[in-house]
Design a protein that fits this description.
Strand order of the largest sheet: 2-3-5-4-6-9
Radius of gyration: 18 Å
Order of helices and strands: HEHHEEEHEHEEHEHEH
Length: 360
């Protein structure tokens, strides 16, 4: 369930979070309401009726894209390939097989790959065999940027409108696979282009989506049951050089998605938020990134900020008109499948990240 606080309570809630040594807000929970509406915002509804142009790009005269062209067809195929393994639920064969595939793809695209393995304890005591996959492009570069996403699937479709589906696993085409797919396509493009001088740490976080389900009444959700892989990464930083900043990609392939400025990102790393939203305009995808705040989301970027000290933001959709969920109608449902992945959304996010990297 989503817990909301008014904007008047925003700073009170933030001060409470800031003073704590561990995460005490619910993971994947939106705080606040829409604060402002940009003139550039494109109207859309819960069904993804976005009025973005057919090719996904804005016809803005001021757009000045740089870097290679992101291939949305390739990213779409990478998304589907993960789903072909089935739901990548922790401790499952599908999870392990997909992890090996992700490792091999990053190696294929010239990255130095490290697997950060750990036995992490879930909220109910289940031991989760977790693997954070760290793929370093241009590993010798001292100036580094973090691009990250989670790769595991939610074990329970506990936000599905049909309660009989609440204990079924989520395919996680959008909520997991899309972010990894964008990173794989970025790695492929960077290897082919060979012009980027900075280094990139692609990190696939594991055990993100094992948070306490809505139907579980025996445990109180204080937030620590989510983002376990990111917590472990941030507290046991595995590489010799810390990136200057990071960008988390979460649910970046959904129909009709727009990416409002996320409140926790603004608090932790407002300069990075500004950089990314300006890059979206420069790449020609400003309509996907409205100049408005969509709420606060405690996600993988929070422990990276808190414990690793890397200013990291979250590119995550906000659907203000969707009653099913402000994360969109397929979030934590059995309908998070390839049928609802939009190549235009993948293109908008992927090209924006390229714009960021090539304007450093």
């Amino acid at each position: 369930s989503r817990k909301r606080v008014s904007y008047q309570l925003f700073r009170i809630e933030w001060e409470r979070i800031r003073k704590q040594s561990t995460m005490k807000t619910n993971i994947k929970i939106i705080f606040g309401c829409l604060l402002a509406v940009s003139l550039a915002t494109v109207a859309y509804g819960c069904k993804g009726k976005a009025s973005n142009s057919d090719n996904g790009a804005d016809t803005v005269a001021t757009a000045k894209p740089v870097g290679p062209s992101f291939n949305a067809d390739s990213a779409y195929a990478f998304t589907a390939a993960q789903c072909d393994f089935g739901p990548r639920v922790m401790n499952s064969a599908a999870h392990d097989k997909c992890g090996k595939w992700i490792v091999e793809k990053f190696k294929e695209y010239g990255c130095e790959v490290q697997e950060q393995k750990a036995d992490l304890k879930a909220y109910d005591g289940t031991v989760l065999k977790s693997t954070n996959i760290i793929a370093r492009f241009n590993p010798e570069a001292k100036k580094r940027i973090l691009i990250c996403a989670h790769w595991d699937s939610r074990p329970w479709a506990d936000n599905d409108p049909d309660s009989t589906n609440h204990k079924k696993p989520v395919m996680a085409a959008n909520d997991g696979a899309s972010g990894v797919a964008v990173m794989l396509e970025l790695a492929r493009q960077l290897q082919a282009d060979k012009k980027l001088k900075v280094g990139v740490d692609f990190v696939c976080f594991d055990a993100e989506d094992w948070g306490i389900p809505r139907w579980e009444t025996r445990y109180q959700d204080d937030g620590d049951s989510w983002a376990l892989g990111a917590q472990y990464y941030a507290k046991n930083f595995p590489t010799p050089v810390k990136p200057e900043f990071g960008i988390l990609l979460d649910m970046v392939g959904g129909e009709g998605a727009q990416f409002y400025r996320e409140g926790m990102s603004v608090q932790f790393a407002s300069d990075v938020v500004n950089r990314v939203w300006e890059a979206a305009k420069g790449a020609g995808f400003g309509s996907y990134f409205p100049d408005a705040v969509g709420g606060m989301v405690t996600d993988d970027h929070v422990p990276v900020n808190q414990f690793a000290g890397i200013p990291t933001i979250d590119i995550i959709p906000y659907y203000p008109d969707c009653q099913q969920s402000s994360f969109g109608p397929t979030w934590h449902t059995v309908n998070d499948t390839m049928e609802h992945i939009d190549k235009n959304t993948l293109l908008a996010v992927g090209q924006t990240v390229i714009q960021v990297l090539y304007t450093l």
